[in-house]
Amino acid sequence: MSKQDEMKRLAAEKAVEFVPENEYIGIGTGSTVNFFIEALGKSGKQIKGAVSTSQKSAELMAQYGIPEIHPNEAMKLAVYIDGADEINHSLQMIKGGGGAHLPEKIVAKLSEKFICIADESKYVSRLGKFPLPLEVVGMARSMVSRQIVKMGGQPELRIGFKSLHGNEIVDVRGLDLSQPLTMERQLNEITGIVENGLFAERPADLLILARENGVVELI
Ligand code: 5RP
Fold it and tell me: Where's the active site on this chain (predicted)?
C-alpha cells in the first residue's frame, strides 16, 4: 500500500469512532471513503442505515453488510463521512473528483455533522489547484463554458463520464476561489449548472487529517 493510501486508511479508521450506533448516517464517495466503509463494516458497530452518494459506495456497503436507505427516507442524518479533493483551513472544500458532488452536497446538508477524512496532501491554505467540477445539463454545456471563460476559468469536459443523474461534468481551472462562498453561489446562479463542487456554504465540521507522524482532528 502506498504511503498516501496508508494515511487515507488511518483517517478512515479514526472516523469510525465518531459513528453513533442506532442512527442513520451518510457515506460519501472515493478511495478514502472505501477504507471507511471497510473499517465500519469490520467494526461490528450497529447503525440503523446509511445513505450512500454513489453506486460504487452502495456496492461496497452491501459487501460489508451496511444497510442502505434512500435519502428521502431520512429526515436527518447524525453524521456524514466523506473525503475531499482539497480542504482549506476553514474546512471549506473542493469535491467532485469522482463526479458525485451533487449527491454529496445533498447528503451533507441532510447531516448534523460533516466529518471530512483526508490525507495531508488535501490540506491547503488556498483552494483552487484541483480543478473545480461543475455538474452541467448536457444541452447547456457550451453556454455554461462560455460564461466560465468570461469569469476567467478554463473549462474542460470530462470525456466519457456521466453523473449519477445523467448530467455532464465540466472541470474548471483558473477561477479565483479566494472567496469560496461567493463563488459557490455565483456559479449556481448560472442557468445549466446543476451544482458545483465548492463546499463553502456547508463546510465540514471536523477534519480528520492523517499525516506521516499521525492523525490529527481539526475544527
Ligand atoms: C468524490 C469526492 C471525493 O471525496 C474526492 O474526490 C476524494 O476522493 P479520494 O478519497 O479518492 O481522494 O468528492 O466526488
Answer: 104 (proton acceptor)
Give the Å distance between the CA of 92 and the centre of ligand 1: 14
Question: What pTM does this model have?
Answer: 0.95
Report the distance separating Cα 59 and Cα 62, nearest Å: 5
pLDDT along the chain (219 residues), means of 10: 95 98 96 98 95 96 96 92 98 96 96 98 97 98 98 97 96 97 98 98 98 94
Ligand 1 pocket: which of 8, 29, 52, 208 to mutate (most atoms within 8 A of CB): 29
Residue 182 to residue 72: CA distance in whole angstroms: 29
Is 104 designated active site? yes
H helical segments located in the chain: 3-16, 31-43, 55-63, 101-110, 141-150, 180-188
Q: What is the ipTM of this complex?
A: 0.97
